[in-house]
Amino acid sequence: MPDATTSSHSRQRPLRILFVGGALHGGGAERQLLQLATELHDLGHVVTVATIANSAVPSKFRQVELWNGQRRTKLGTGLGLAQALIRLRRLCFTDRPDVVVGWLSLPVILTTIACRHRGILVVAALRNARPEMQLGRYREKIVFATLRWSLRNSNLIIANSQAGVDGYTGLGLIDRSQARVIRNGIDTYEFQLSSEQSASAARAALGVAHDGPLALYVGRIAEEKDIPLLVRTISASLDRRADLAWLVVGIAAERFLAIASSLNVTIPADRVCFIARLEKIALAYNASTILCLTSRREGSPNCVMEARACRLPVISTDCGDVRECACPRDRIVAADANALTNAIDDVLATVSLRQHQGHQVLSMHDCAQQWLSALQAVVPAEAMLPKLD
Question: What is the CATH number of domain 196-355?
Fold first, then answer.
């Protein structure tokens, strides 16, 4: 006879979860989707990820391509999205997922339309991304109205920061009561505090021949990243401190130096190391002394959480949820090269505190558990009972 204390969860079948996203590689939001889907699969659930773009990556879960994502013309884009919608509706009909999660704005719209009148629960995952937030400038456009309709018809909205919830509420896209915040998860096995010896080894592995403090930037060239401000900050900080060097990950040297040249700023090549692509990104954090972020807009930047997991102080502009998650040793300053340089000086004066001040980040396993709890809360309990033959 089963023990009366046996949890009802032990008698439930696995969730059938369908994620709909743009891609599985490209930026932080895409990487977060890949890691979350993998973790939910490892927890024993049936996970499928359907993408608009052709973005197949090695994975444990099933992947489905809705459209190849080519957008040469407006007509081609419209036809492609119509094709993606038809394929998504068919996928929902054949797979009968318990819940469909739209990841970012366009997938949320497709998901809501595809699940309309099918009795399938819809969850909208908002990442406080640039295309979503810019919709507020074009309220007369049908896309804004369609996204607002989609969000209002979602069973649950999950944002990765309170700043995101506030932003979407301010734009009139969501009702605050619909939303729940689940922060981005971090691979805490990959990103962790390094020893002095491993820091030296990391610099050697990256080809960084510098023994003094090393400032790190991780990101790509995009309008919201404010690379001109990064250029000016690097120049100003190197002028002020002879012991400082920089490591820039995600931007090729020639592209960065071209931007610097257009600004009439000279960057000493012997004091800045550029790595356009880095598979083992944890090496960059282990090699560095501080992280610097110059963005105008972010959601919940993964680089900040990864740096905090590695006990790196963060110097940043006031973007996304950087301030709401700040540690005492972090510095959130104005978007100004002189303010950022002053903050670098201030933090480097107390950099020895790195070994003693940690920050509680959310592991990817715990992030997946929070997602699972949120999804199970909206799926009717009777739907989760195993079917009897």
Answer: 3.40.50.2000
